């Protein structure tokens, strides 16, 4: 069994070479943060000393409640957990760990003298990934710990890669959307800021899903004429036809995003964003859809002139439609306020973050390169500069720039 575990660990490390212990700056291997829970002092001391000798950082706890508090303060990479303990047994400790989104993915290895099949089944049902029988052989403990650390790090790297890849793809998609509708992109940025705040306050796992949903929740509106989007979203006395057109944008976005692997939850959040979500629902999709609906309603009220915290108070009285815990998560949120100054610049002086005050038009007036209201990015600036070099653009270009931020860069340019 030990040799089989070692073989699995070697195969995992070979398949994903970045997943093993990573060298630190001083050339030493990166230590794992391991939490050991056992009410027997002798067992606790034995395991702690052994794992420290293996180069790991170890915290020991004699009670389950203390272990839960320690894990919450500083989440470990792996937990070794005894079953028979006073106050709270290992099964209950594991269930509470798995119920906490911040701690749910940490691998739990049970250590116990209980040998009945039912005990092992209960350990796995509680959320454990492995079961080591007492008295434990230290060589076996080492092999199982190394294997599950590698598997845990493999999943972590996969999630990080997925998050970074999708964020990069979405950023590119957002830039294309911005060319078509700057105001749509501006609202998406405001919604993402609110959802980022909410996920942090609610301690939600996989925050990237909610943030991507906010970034893309209005992407279906690229099919709408600009005035239809503004009338419906900004509340500029839209006609019923305009409201009907706007009401279809979640389904348009869903059809686009549901074809992308790993974005199924994000696509479903966006599809349901206009529906009332029950406050008792805790699924990822329902939670994300409720967050989108709440953030959009707050954003739309602010655009109509209501102060943000006043808008929150208004939604608190409508907890049947806007879950109270989501509104409460924004009670200390402050929308970004940036003071801008107007500048008239050449194409070569444009910098990311500036906002176009007027359309950028080719010198002969035959083509609009970028419409006014667009926030400039590196890609969009290159587009303007390429047109300036080939067909020419009408300059100077009038932009709004965050006050005082760009002076040194403009002087260099």
Give structural attributes:
alpha/beta; single chain; 413 residues; Hypothetical protein af1432; Molybdopterin biosynthesis moea protein, domain 2; Rossmann fold; three-stranded antiparallel β-sheet
Short description:
The protein has helices at residues 2-15, 41-53, 64-73, 90-99, 117-126, 138-180, 182-201, 207-216, 226-234, 240-247, 249-257, 264-271, 284-303, 308-316, 324-328, 378-390, 407-412, and strands at residues 33-37, 57-61, 78-82, 108-112, 130-133, 340-345, 355-356, 360-361, 368-370, 397-402. It has 413 residues and is α/β, with parallel strands linked by helices. Strands 2-1-3-4-5 form a five-stranded parallel beta sheet, with helices on both faces. A three-stranded antiparallel beta sheet has the order 6-10-7, with no helix packed on it.
Q: How confident overall, as mean pLDDT?
A: 83
CATH class of the largest domain: Alpha Beta
Structural class: alpha/beta
Question: How is the largest sheet built, in terms of strand order?
Answer: 2-1-3-4-5
- Give the number of DSSP strands: 10
Largest beta-sheet details: 5 strands, parallel
């Amino acid at each position: 069994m030990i040799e089989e575990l070692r073989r699995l660990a070697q195969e995992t490390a070979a398949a994903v070479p970045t997943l093993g212990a990573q060298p630190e700056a001083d050339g030493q291997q990166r230590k794992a943060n391991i939490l050991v829970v056992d009410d027997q002092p002798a067992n606790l001391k034995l395991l702690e000393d052994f794992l420290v000798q293996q180069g790991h950082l170890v915290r020991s706890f004699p009670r389950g409640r203390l272990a839960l508090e320690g894990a919450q303060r500083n989440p470990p990479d792996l937990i070794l957990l005894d079953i028979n303990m006073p106050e709270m047994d290992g099964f209950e400790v594991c269930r509470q760990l798995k119920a906490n989104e911040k701690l749910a993915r940490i691998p739990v290895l049970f250590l116990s003298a209980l040998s009945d099949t039912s005990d092992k089944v209960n350990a796995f049902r509680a959320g454990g990934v492995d079961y080591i029988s007492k008295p434990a052989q230290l060589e076996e403990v080492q092999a199982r710990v190394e294997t599950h650390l590698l598997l845990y790090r493999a999943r972590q790297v996969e999630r990080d890669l997925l998050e970074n890849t999708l964020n990069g793809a979405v950023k590119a998609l957002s830039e294309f959307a911005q060319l078509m509708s700057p105001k749509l992109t501006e609202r998406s940025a405001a919604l993402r800021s609110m959802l980022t705040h909410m996920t942090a306050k609610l301690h939600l796992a996989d925050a990237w899903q909610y943030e991507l949903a906010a970034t893309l929740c209005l992407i279906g509106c690229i099919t709408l004429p600009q005035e239809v989007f503004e009338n419906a979203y900004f509340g500029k006395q839209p006609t019923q036809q305009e409201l009907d057109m706007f009401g279809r944008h979640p389904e348009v976005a869903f059809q686009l995003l549901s074809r992308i692997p790993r974005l199924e939850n994000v696509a479903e959040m966006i599809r349901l964003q206009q529906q009332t979500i029950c406050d008792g629902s805790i699924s990822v999709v329902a939670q994300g859809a409720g967050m989108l609906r709440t953030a959009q309603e707050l954003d739309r009220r602010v655009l109509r002139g209501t102060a943000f915290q006043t808008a929150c108070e208004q939604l608190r009285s409508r907890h049947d439609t806007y879950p109270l815990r989501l509104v409460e998560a924004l009670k200390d949120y402050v929308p970004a306020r940036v003071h801008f100054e107007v500048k008239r610049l050449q194409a070569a002086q444009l910098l990311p973050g500036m906002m176009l005050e007027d359309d950028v038009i080719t010198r002969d007036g035959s083509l609009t390169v970028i419409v006014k209201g667009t926030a400039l990015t590196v890609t969009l600036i290159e587009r303007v500069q390429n047109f300036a070099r080939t067909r020419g653009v009408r300059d100077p270009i009038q932009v709004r720039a965050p006050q005082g931020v760009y002076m040194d860069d403009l002087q260099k340019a």
